[in-house]
Structure formats: C-alpha cells, structure tokens
C-alpha cells in the first residue's frame, strides 16, 4: 500500500490534505456550535470567483484568493450582525454572486477546463509551490487556534458572558472567520469548491454523536477528519476515482456509523 506514496503528487496530497482536514475539523466544531456551518460553502464559492478572475488575468490564483476570501468572511460577519439579513441569507447573497462572477469569467476567458480542478478538486493540480503555500497557511491556522483556544471556547458558547469577563467577542469572531477563510482557500485545490465545506461539517457532527465535552469533540473531530481523508485518498487511488468525492462519502459513512452507535447506546442506557 505504501507504494502509492512513491509518487510526488500523492505525497503532496497527503501532506496538504491532512493539514487541511485538521484545520477544517477544528473550525468545524466552532462553526457548527455557532450555527454558522454553511460559511464554508459560501466562502468556497467566493474563492472560486476569485480564482477565476485571477486565472483570467494570469495572476497566481491562491495568492489572489486569500485576501478576497478574507474580506468576504469579514463582510459576512458584518452583514449578519449589522443588517436585516440573517447569517444564512448573507451567505447565500455573497456566495451566489461570487459563483456567478466566476462562471461568467471562466466562460468568457475560455478557462472552463482549467477551473474544473477548483470546482471538484484534483490532487494532480497541487504544485510544489502550492503545497508550500498551503502548509504555511495551515500551520498558521492551527497555531492561532491553539493560542486563542480559551477565548474561542468562551465566545462559541456565550458571547455575553465572554464580553462580561473582558473578552472581545467581535475580535474573536473575526479571528474565527479569518481562520475559516484560510482553511477554505488551502483546501479548494484537493477537495474542490463544491466539496470543501463537507470537511468542516461531517467530522464535527460525527464527533458530537458520541462525545460530550468540547475538548473531546475537538480531538475526536480532528482524528476522524484526518482518518477519513487518508483512507479516502488511498481508495481514490486504487479505484481510480476523484479524491474529493471519495473523502466526502467516507466522512458520510462514518457519520452514519456514529449515528447508529449513538442510538444503540441511548437505548442501552434507558
């Protein structure tokens, strides 16, 4: 089985995918608990629009996507807090508009084929430069999350109490949004725009089926996310199927298994 990692593109996919899976799992727990889990889907659509414009202008796509998606994440927070639009509506407005821009630009510039890797993911599309860029961003995301873990924890469960204890909820919500934006950008190469949000939602939901404490959910979610990615990557190689959809289906299968186990456990405890 180890022979598949004799290929450079598989090694790149393993390194980047593992780090992205871990980042997505950590932030996924926060976003699910804050009922903001679809932000990943919205920001990935924004990323697609930015990538399309960058590719059409012959500019490095990922370097363009990062600031654009960061700005979109902050705009989503402001729209949901300051306007009459709720979070889901704000996501729908921004994501659908960005996706429409991306599709039109891709169509006009003739980049449809090149951008398929961003829509559906492709391990072959990740270059050495992309891999280094993604690893650096992933390390930054994990480091910032660990440094501000206690503050993020308090803001996630009770913003009013957090504010009363001296924590600034607005600041840490912006940090969460920024970390999510970076995770989305670095994950689009392998998972694709249409599937990256699954890495945020599935592991968190699976962990919540069996774990009760916040820390245990975080840990189990991270383990499950990395496990599903690695085995999804291996299955996609041996069966010659796309990596992104395989990883998503593997996550879905784990969620169903954990759901069944939680139901059985509840019946045994009654």
Report on the structure:
This protein is mostly helical. It is built from 12 helices and no strands. α2 packs parallel to α4, α3 (61-82) packs antiparallel against α4 and α3 packs across α9.
Shape: globular
Give the H and E element order: HHHHHHHHHHHH
Contiguous uncertain segments of 5+ residues: none
**DSSP helix fraction:** over 70%
Q: Give the overall average pLDDT.
A: 84
If helices are DSSP runs of H or I spanning 4 or more residues, what is the number of helices? 12
- Quaternary organisation of the protein chains: single chain
Termini separation comes to 44 Å
Proportion of strand residues: under 5%
Largest sheet: none
In short:
The protein has 270 residues and is mainly alpha-helical.
How would you describe this structure in keywords?
270 residues, mainly alpha, 83% helix
Summarize the SSE layout with pairings:
Blueprint: H1 8-33, H2 39-56, H3 61-82, H4 87-109, H5 112-120, H6 128-147, H7 149-157, H8 159-164, H9 169-191, H10 196-210, H11 214-239, H12 243-269
């Amino acid at each position: 089985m180890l022979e598949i990692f004799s290929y450079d593109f598989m090694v790149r996919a393993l390194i980047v995918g593992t780090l992205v899976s871990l980042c997505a799992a950590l932030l996924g727990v926060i976003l699910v608990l804050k009922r903001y889990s679809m932000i990943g889907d919205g920001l990935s659509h924004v990323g697609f629009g930015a990538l399309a414009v960058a590719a059409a202008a012959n500019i490095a796509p990922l370097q363009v996507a990062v600031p654009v998606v960061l700005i979109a994440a902050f705009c989503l927070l402001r729209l949901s807090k300051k306007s009459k639009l709720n979070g889901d509506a704000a996501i729908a407005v921004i994501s659908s508009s960005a996706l429409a821009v991306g599709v039109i630009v891709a169509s006009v510039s003739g980049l449809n084929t090149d951008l398929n890797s961003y829509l559906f993911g492709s391990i072959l599309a990740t270059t050495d430069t992309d891999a280094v860029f993604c690893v650096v961003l992933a390390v930054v995301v994990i480091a910032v999350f660990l440094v501000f873990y206690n503050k993020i924890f308090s803001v996630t469960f009770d913003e009013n109490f957090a504010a009363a204890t001296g924590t600034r909820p607005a600041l840490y919500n912006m940090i969460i949004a920024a970390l999510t934006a970076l995770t989305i950008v670095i994950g689009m190469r392998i998972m694709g725009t249409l599937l990256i949000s699954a890495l945020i939602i599935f592991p968190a939901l699976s962990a919540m089926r069996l774990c009760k404490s916040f820390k245990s959910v975080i840990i189990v979610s991270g383990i499950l996310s990395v496990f599903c990615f690695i085995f999804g990557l291996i299955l996609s190689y041996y069966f010659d199927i796309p990596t992104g959809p395989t990883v998503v289906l593997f996550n879905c299968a784990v969620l169903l298994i954990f759901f069944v186990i939680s139901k059985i456990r509840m019946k045994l405890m009654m």
